[in-house]
Structures are given as C-alpha cells and as structure tokens.
C-alpha cells in the first residue's frame, strides 16, 4: 500500500516527516512511503536510499499563515496539494499532513473530493480516556457550524471508523451536551437528538457531558466543530497545566525532588496516556480518499503512528465502508 506524506507540513518539517517515514518503513514491510516536498531538502535527510521510500518533488509549501482556500488554489505545486492529487488519481491510497488544518480541509474538498451523500466531512481525532480505550470525537474543527443532519452523518462515520479500524462490534455513540436529559441543549442538539435516537446501524447512548468524556462514557462523541474544538483545546491545555503544576510542586525541596524521582515511571505513564503522539493523527472522514491530519508539532514518532493509523484504515477498507453506509447499499 502506498502512503503519501506531506513532507513540508508541520512545525518540525521536514525532519520529523522523514524520521517518521523511516521508522514506519522499518516496522511494516507492506507499505511504500512517498515523501512529497522539496527534493533538495529531503534528499540529504535520506543518507542511504532506503527501500520503499521515495521522493516526489513539489516546489511550493503551504505555511500556517496562508489563507487556506487561496493557498490551495494558487499553490498547485505545494507538497500538500500534490499529495492530495496523488490520492485523487490513485497514486497513493492515503495522505498524511501535519500542516495547515484549514488548507488540508480545503485540499480534501477541492482536490481529493467529498464522498457522495456527505454534506460536511469531519475531523475525527482520538481523545484518550482513563480506561485506555479512547473516544473518537467528531467534528473537532473542520466545520464551525453544523446542522442536525450533519451530526447524524458524523455518528454514522464515527461508528464505522471504530468498527473497522478498532474492531468494536457495537461502538457507543454519544452527543456532546450540557446535560444528559434528552431535552437539554441548544437548538442544534435538541434537533439532533431524535435523529440519532432513530438512526439505524448505530448504538446511541444519549447525551454526554464534557466532564464524562475522559471517563469513557462513549466510544464515539458527536458534536459541531465549534464546541468540539473548544473541548479539544481545553483538554490539551488542562493536561499541559497539570504537568506544569506537578513539575513546580516537585521542584520545591529536596524531599519533593526525591519523591518525584520515585514516582517518575508512573508520571511518564500518565503523560503517555494524554500524549497525542501515541494516536498519530485525526482522519478527515467523508472524503473520497483517506486523509489523515497530524498534530502541528508532531515528531517522528507521531508521524510513524499516523502511518500506522492509515495502514489499518486501508487494510480495513474504511473509505468504501463509509461510502456503503451512507448510500445504504
């Protein structure tokens, strides 16, 4: 299977993407990785020409400051757009990018193409939970506004993803809300609730409050992109603040430093549970091809895990499964 990586996307590009490609190629022999980007910058990072890794030259780069739609339309030879075109034309079964989120969403819509029957594709990252199962949350930022029928499609796509990629027989689908009662919420959630309740093929468990997400209240969390992105950034910020406070407290005296040394393995394990690098990336569900969004500050390990994620999705026929579910065929 062929996976294209936008080698120039991300805060630590291109080094992190080359490192991740090398790690992935060493681990899985059934993949071929195409690094898309400036060949002059990429070639020196590949000291020995590794097997199953090649370079596709792209002369332009979409930066984090670029306006998404203009950049995708004007920078047709950018690494992101070229990778998207490779998926569209069948040269790659998936693409991974840690670059500009808005530009990647635009590339998905304008270059890869939206799946027939899907009104709005959704960004679906994994949020870690205390039971280590995790929850797939969508949409967490692809679309700031949504209609009730969009949330119903998110529920279907998320349920298929957890079934195909994670092997869950009956994923529990929850609707992010301010209370568990069916009548709670704003106009969007009130209208979406009966749609989800009557949607065949999913196991709807009702409303889920934000405080219960990390407790594993559901396997798929459905929300609009505005509320979802606030949830995601709040969780990331809280985790960062918590570890900063712990570091501050453990640095106060010799006694606390000794205590920190004794607890270090457990603290590392706790940090690992909340580390986005372990999950790799977030798929953009609802497109005519597999597109995975890596975190902007991804390192080599995160890119490798994004490749793992894409590999499993390709093996399980995720895109075709979602298309069949949406079309009802």
TrEMBL record:
Its EC number is 2.3.1.274. The keyword Lipid metabolism applies. Pathway: Lipid metabolism; phospholipid metabolism. It is found in: Cytoplasm. Coiled coil: none annotated. GO terms for biological process: fatty acid biosynthetic process; phospholipid biosynthetic process. One of its GO terms (cellular component) is cytoplasm. The keyword Nucleus does not apply. One of its GO terms (molecular function) is phosphate:acyl-[acyl carrier protein] acyltransferase activity. It catalyses: a fatty acyl-[ACP] + phosphate = an acyl phosphate + holo-[ACP]. It comes from the Bacteria. InterPro entries: FA_synthesis, Phospholipid_synth_PlsX-like. Keywords: Acyltransferase, Cytoplasm, Lipid biosynthesis, Lipid metabolism, Phospholipid biosynthesis, Phospholipid metabolism, Transferase. Its main location: cytoplasm. Catalyzes the reversible formation of acyl-phosphate (acyl-PO(4)) from acyl-[acyl-carrier-protein] (acyl-ACP). This enzyme utilizes acyl-ACP as fatty acyl donor, but not acyl-CoA. NCBIfam families: plsX (TIGR00182). HAMAP family: PlsX (MF_00019). PANTHER family: FATTY ACID/PHOSPHOLIPID SYNTHESIS PROTEIN PLSX, PHOSPHATE ACYLTRANSFERASE. Belongs to the PlsX family. Homodimer. Probably interacts with PlsY. This is Phosphate acyltransferase. The gene is plsX.
